[in-house]
Amino acid sequence: MVGDGHRLAGTPLCVAQDEAGVPPGVWKGRGLAVLGLTAGDVVTERQAELLLGEGRHPDGDRIERERLEAGDDPATALRATVPGRPIEHNRSPKTGKAKERTPWLAMDLVFRAPSRAHIAWALGDDEIRLVLELCQDSARDKTLAWLEDEVAQIRWGSGGRHRKPIRDGLIVVVFRPYESRAAESKPLLHDHAVVSIRARRPDGTWGNLSADTMLAHIVVADTLYTCTS
After folding, report:
1. For residue range 66-107, what is the model confidence (pLDDT) as tens digits?
2. Which of 63, 69, 54, 66 lies closest to 81 in space, CA to CA?
3. What's the predicted TM-score (pTM) here?
4. 98-120 CB burial, b ≥16 within 10 A, e <16
5. Contact of 209 with 155, CB cutoff 8 Å
């Protein structure tokens, strides 16, 4: 979220992003509409924490507060902020402990510009960089739209045996660092599109994306992005 910059404890995300010289993350995906969010809006630190860290609605704090004011008990108000199953759902009924694994709440799709493009971006003037960044935006968004329309499936039932196309679209947060993660950071035009696993089934209920369906088409997605960029 801050590129490869380091953020001291207590430093607001927006300040850390400004110091690192990277733009803030923005929302993408047609699945935003059902959450009351708009594509292109800036993602706040709390929104990212709620969705990607806790599996809750990005504006869960507001929803919880409104439900409490309406008279709901705390547990009911908190549950209203969770689309789908809470992280705690996997707790063992015998021991009360969650499964020994980190909850999977998102997948990171990396859109890295072809070598000639990011070299031209690194060495070119402001006009060249702007054009290449617009091409990057277009290729990335077209690829995400293809994944929404043709690939993404929602799963439910034991072992995810039931699968159908998602109802609305994907919920995505896009971050753009300007450097690689090599030991000696080098200019590199690329985006991290962090896709939330939360999506709606055809009947409108919430569930989790089928990860294997997405991964089975990742090479095709990469080819589409490369040919479009």
Report:
1. 999 999 999 999 999 999 888 765 555 555 565 555 678 999
2. 63
3. 0.86
4. eeeeeeebbeebebbbeeebbeb
5. yes
